[in-house]
Amino acid sequence: MLLKLILLVSAALPVFLFLRRLLAGSRPTRLSQALRDFRRQLDLAVWIFLGLVGCVVAFAAGKLIWTWWEAL
């Protein structure tokens, strides 16, 4: 009888977990929150890097145009 009860609980557990996940939604865990914060910081770092590269390209293009304009 005890074996049948253990078997019933082990068979019902995945159904219970699936329904709880489906109906209750998900709460953010520490790992997912940390991953979200890391991705946000990485995204900010990439945008800062692209901004700096854009400034360098704009400065180089301005200097090239200025040099070309003086040569005329």
Report what the structure shows:
Helix content is 90%, strand content 0%. With 72 residues, the chain is mostly helical. The model has no long low-confidence stretch (mean pLDDT 88).
- Looking at how many chains there are and whether they match, the oligomeric state comes to single chain
Q: Whole-number radius of gyration? A: 29 Å
- Report the sheet with the most strands, covering strand number, pairing sense and barrel closure: none
- Helix and strand run: HH
Mean pLDDT: 88
Set down the secondary structure blueprint.
Blueprint: H1 2-24, H2 30-71
Keywords for this entry:
72 residues, mainly alpha, 0% strand, rod-shaped
Structure summary:
The chain has 72 residues and is an all-alpha fold. It has two helices and no strands.
